[in-house]
Amino acid sequence: MEVTWQNQCSTCHGMQGHGDGPQGPMFKAPDLSREDFQSRVKDDEIASTITNGKGRMPKFEIPDEVVRGLVLRVRSFRGR
């Protein structure tokens, strides 16, 4: 899961989920640590966005257990 975050997600979302990866500004990646995001979005919605894409975010074909790990990773950013 860590390798997937580094290779697929951090390019836009940054290592800590702040949307500050090298491609983040270009794609307007959201800050996943913001309380308004964390309290508004359900785990199923995060998983769906990862697997189906949303807006400028592409879909990723990765195993369900990796998706679950990425959801936990996104939740770990809360309040950072």
Task: List descriptors.
mainly alpha; 80 residues; Cytochrome Bc1 Complex, Chain D, domain 2
Number of helices: 5
Give helix and strand order, one letter per element, not per position. HHHHH
Oligomer: single chain
| CA distance, first residue to last residue | 20 Å
Supply the CATH architecture: Orthogonal Bundle
Mean pLDDT across all residues, rounded?
96
The main pleated sheet reads as: none
The radius of gyration computed from the alpha-carbon positions, rounded to a whole number of angstroms, is 11 Å
Structural class of the secondary elements? mainly alpha
CATH topology: Cytochrome Bc1 Complex, Chain D, domain 2
Protein name: Cytochrome c domain-containing protein
Pfam family, one: Cytochrome_CBB3
Domain Cytochrome c: 2-71
GO molecular function: electron transfer activity; heme binding; metal ion binding
Summarize this entry quickly:
By secondary structure, the protein is mainly α. It has helices spanning 2-13, 24-27, 35-40, 43-52, 64-76. Helix 4 packs across helix 5.
Please characterize this protein's 3D structure.
With 80 residues, the protein is mostly helical. The chain has one domain (2-12, 32-76): Cytochrome c-like domain (Cytochrome Bc1 Complex, Chain D, domain 2, Orthogonal Bundle), CATH 1.10.760.10. The protein is 56% helix and 0% strand. The radius of gyration is 11 Å and the shape is globular.
